[in-house]
Amino acid sequence: xxxxxxxxxxxxxxRSKKLLLxxxxxxxxxxxxxxxxxxxxxxxxxxxxxxxxxxDSPEPxxxxxxxxxxxKIGDRSAGDELARLLxxxxxxxxxxxxxxxxxxxxxxxxxxxxxxxxxxxxxxxVRNCASAAVSVIVNSPGFRPTSGPFQSSQILSENWKxxxxxxxxxxxxxxxxxxxxxxxxxxxxxxxxLVADEDAR
Length: 201
Hints:
Elements lengths: L7 H7 L2 H9 L3 H14 L5 H7 L5 H14 L5 H9 L5 H14 L5 H6 L6 H15 L13 H4 L21 H10 L4 H10 L1
Protein backbone atom coordinates (compact mmCIF):
# COMPACT_ATOMS: atom_id res chain seq x y z
CA UNK A 1 0.00 0.00 0.00
CA UNK A 2 1.39 3.39 -0.95
CA UNK A 3 0.80 6.41 1.23
CA UNK A 4 -0.62 9.55 -0.33
CA UNK A 5 1.84 12.40 -0.46
CA UNK A 6 0.63 15.21 1.76
CA UNK A 7 0.00 18.56 0.12
CA UNK A 8 1.17 21.80 1.73
CA UNK A 9 -2.41 22.46 2.84
CA UNK A 10 -2.61 19.01 4.47
CA UNK A 11 0.63 19.74 6.28
CA UNK A 12 -0.62 23.14 7.45
CA UNK A 13 -3.78 21.61 8.90
CA UNK A 14 -1.60 19.49 11.16
CA ARG A 15 0.66 22.30 12.26
CA SER A 16 0.50 23.75 15.73
CA LYS A 17 -0.68 27.33 16.20
CA LYS A 18 2.87 28.35 17.06
CA LEU A 19 4.25 26.98 13.79
CA LEU A 20 1.37 28.44 11.82
CA LEU A 21 2.13 31.89 13.23
CA UNK A 22 5.76 31.36 12.24
CA UNK A 23 4.61 30.55 8.69
CA UNK A 24 2.68 33.82 8.54
CA UNK A 25 5.79 35.72 9.62
CA UNK A 26 8.05 33.89 7.15
CA UNK A 27 9.15 35.45 3.87
CA UNK A 28 7.74 32.73 1.60
CA UNK A 29 4.57 34.16 -0.07
CA UNK A 30 3.11 30.74 -0.90
CA UNK A 31 3.50 29.54 2.67
CA UNK A 32 2.06 32.84 3.95
CA UNK A 33 -0.96 32.50 1.65
CA UNK A 34 -1.71 28.94 2.75
CA UNK A 35 -1.07 29.81 6.39
CA UNK A 36 -3.48 32.76 6.12
CA UNK A 37 -6.13 30.45 4.70
CA UNK A 38 -5.61 28.00 7.55
CA UNK A 39 -5.63 30.75 10.19
CA UNK A 40 -8.97 31.95 8.81
CA UNK A 41 -10.36 28.40 8.76
CA UNK A 42 -9.41 28.00 12.42
CA UNK A 43 -10.58 31.54 13.31
CA UNK A 44 -7.22 32.13 15.01
CA UNK A 45 -7.56 35.51 16.72
CA UNK A 46 -3.91 35.36 17.76
CA UNK A 47 -3.00 35.57 14.06
CA UNK A 48 -4.85 38.86 13.50
CA UNK A 49 -1.84 41.15 13.94
CA UNK A 50 0.29 39.18 11.47
CA UNK A 51 -2.59 39.02 9.02
CA UNK A 52 -3.10 42.79 9.20
CA UNK A 53 0.59 43.22 8.33
CA UNK A 54 0.12 40.93 5.32
CA UNK A 55 -2.46 43.33 3.87
CA ASP A 56 0.61 45.33 2.79
CA SER A 57 2.36 42.32 1.23
CA PRO A 58 3.82 42.96 -2.25
CA GLU A 59 2.05 39.75 -3.34
CA PRO A 60 -1.63 40.24 -4.24
CA UNK A 61 -2.44 36.57 -3.49
CA UNK A 62 -1.16 37.08 0.04
CA UNK A 63 -3.13 40.32 0.48
CA UNK A 64 -6.31 38.59 -0.67
CA UNK A 65 -5.77 35.58 1.62
CA UNK A 66 -5.08 37.85 4.58
CA UNK A 67 -8.21 39.90 3.91
CA UNK A 68 -10.40 36.80 3.71
CA UNK A 69 -8.88 35.39 6.91
CA UNK A 70 -9.45 38.64 8.82
CA UNK A 71 -13.11 38.57 7.81
CA LYS A 72 -13.48 34.99 8.98
CA ILE A 73 -11.70 35.72 12.25
CA GLY A 74 -13.92 38.76 12.84
CA ASP A 75 -11.10 41.26 13.40
CA ARG A 76 -12.91 44.59 13.17
CA SER A 77 -9.66 46.47 13.85
CA ALA A 78 -8.73 45.63 10.24
CA GLY A 79 -11.82 47.37 8.85
CA ASP A 80 -10.15 50.62 7.84
CA GLU A 81 -7.28 48.81 6.10
CA LEU A 82 -9.71 46.57 4.22
CA ALA A 83 -11.68 49.65 3.13
CA ARG A 84 -8.45 51.29 1.98
CA LEU A 85 -7.59 48.32 -0.25
CA LEU A 86 -11.14 48.17 -1.62
CA UNK A 87 -10.98 51.85 -2.56
CA UNK A 88 -7.60 51.47 -4.28
CA UNK A 89 -8.36 51.02 -7.98
CA UNK A 90 -4.77 49.88 -8.56
CA UNK A 91 -5.38 46.72 -6.56
CA UNK A 92 -6.29 43.58 -8.53
CA UNK A 93 -10.01 42.90 -8.72
CA UNK A 94 -9.74 39.70 -6.68
CA UNK A 95 -8.09 41.63 -3.84
CA UNK A 96 -10.76 44.33 -3.86
CA UNK A 97 -13.77 42.01 -3.98
CA UNK A 98 -12.27 39.89 -1.21
CA UNK A 99 -11.94 43.04 0.90
CA UNK A 100 -15.63 43.81 0.30
CA UNK A 101 -16.44 40.23 1.31
CA UNK A 102 -14.41 40.64 4.50
CA UNK A 103 -16.13 43.94 5.31
CA UNK A 104 -19.46 42.16 4.97
CA UNK A 105 -18.30 39.43 7.35
CA UNK A 106 -17.34 42.16 9.81
CA UNK A 107 -20.53 44.19 9.18
CA UNK A 108 -18.14 47.16 9.33
CA UNK A 109 -20.39 50.23 9.14
CA UNK A 110 -17.56 52.83 8.95
CA UNK A 111 -16.77 51.44 5.48
CA UNK A 112 -20.22 52.27 4.07
CA UNK A 113 -19.00 55.29 2.11
CA UNK A 114 -16.30 53.22 0.39
CA UNK A 115 -18.71 50.34 -0.26
CA UNK A 116 -21.32 52.64 -1.76
CA UNK A 117 -18.69 54.20 -4.02
CA UNK A 118 -17.74 50.66 -5.11
CA UNK A 119 -21.27 50.18 -6.45
CA UNK A 120 -20.08 52.22 -9.46
CA UNK A 121 -17.03 50.00 -10.00
CA UNK A 122 -16.56 48.81 -13.60
CA UNK A 123 -16.02 45.24 -12.38
CA UNK A 124 -19.13 43.18 -11.71
CA UNK A 125 -17.69 41.07 -8.90
CA VAL A 126 -16.62 44.18 -6.99
CA ARG A 127 -20.10 45.68 -7.45
CA ASN A 128 -21.78 42.45 -6.34
CA CYS A 129 -19.63 42.06 -3.24
CA ALA A 130 -20.04 45.73 -2.35
CA SER A 131 -23.83 45.65 -2.74
CA ALA A 132 -24.08 42.52 -0.61
CA ALA A 133 -21.83 44.12 2.02
CA VAL A 134 -23.98 47.26 2.15
CA SER A 135 -27.07 45.11 2.60
CA VAL A 136 -25.47 43.05 5.36
CA ILE A 137 -24.37 46.19 7.21
CA VAL A 138 -27.63 48.13 7.06
CA ASN A 139 -29.64 45.03 7.98
CA SER A 140 -27.35 44.04 10.86
CA PRO A 141 -28.81 44.16 14.39
CA GLY A 142 -28.32 47.50 16.07
CA PHE A 143 -27.18 49.35 12.93
CA ARG A 144 -27.40 53.07 13.71
CA PRO A 145 -25.60 55.50 11.37
CA THR A 146 -24.43 58.51 13.34
CA SER A 147 -23.01 61.06 10.91
CA GLY A 148 -22.77 62.32 7.35
CA PRO A 149 -25.30 61.15 4.77
CA PHE A 150 -25.84 57.86 6.61
CA GLN A 151 -28.96 58.70 8.57
CA SER A 152 -30.96 55.59 9.39
CA SER A 153 -34.27 57.19 8.40
CA GLN A 154 -32.82 57.84 4.93
CA ILE A 155 -30.82 54.66 4.38
CA LEU A 156 -33.78 52.42 5.01
CA SER A 157 -36.28 54.57 3.10
CA GLU A 158 -36.35 56.68 -0.06
CA ASN A 159 -32.67 57.61 -0.37
CA TRP A 160 -31.10 54.17 -0.25
CA LYS A 161 -33.86 51.78 -1.27
CA UNK A 162 -32.26 48.79 0.45
CA UNK A 163 -34.52 46.09 1.80
CA UNK A 164 -34.06 42.65 3.23
CA UNK A 165 -34.50 39.69 0.93
CA UNK A 166 -38.16 38.70 0.79
CA UNK A 167 -37.33 35.01 0.61
CA UNK A 168 -35.53 34.70 3.91
CA UNK A 169 -36.52 37.84 5.82
CA UNK A 170 -33.00 38.29 7.17
CA UNK A 171 -29.59 39.54 6.14
CA UNK A 172 -27.69 37.60 3.47
CA UNK A 173 -25.61 34.63 4.53
CA UNK A 174 -21.94 35.48 3.98
CA UNK A 175 -20.37 32.19 4.93
CA UNK A 176 -18.37 32.02 1.72
CA UNK A 177 -17.35 34.28 -1.19
CA UNK A 178 -19.52 32.25 -3.57
CA UNK A 179 -22.52 32.56 -1.24
CA UNK A 180 -21.87 36.28 -0.89
CA UNK A 181 -22.12 36.78 -4.65
CA UNK A 182 -25.38 34.83 -4.73
CA UNK A 183 -26.70 36.93 -1.85
CA UNK A 184 -25.94 40.11 -3.77
CA UNK A 185 -28.36 38.98 -6.45
CA UNK A 186 -31.03 37.82 -3.97
CA UNK A 187 -31.16 41.04 -1.98
CA UNK A 188 -33.38 43.72 -3.51
CA UNK A 189 -30.81 46.48 -3.87
CA UNK A 190 -31.70 49.18 -6.40
CA UNK A 191 -28.09 50.01 -7.26
CA UNK A 192 -28.98 52.48 -10.01
CA UNK A 193 -31.28 54.46 -7.75
CA LEU A 194 -28.79 54.35 -4.88
CA VAL A 195 -25.99 55.79 -7.01
CA ALA A 196 -28.29 58.40 -8.53
CA ASP A 197 -29.43 59.48 -5.09
CA GLU A 198 -25.84 59.81 -3.91
CA ASP A 199 -24.93 61.89 -6.97
CA ALA A 200 -27.91 64.19 -6.37
CA ARG A 201 -26.67 65.21 -2.90
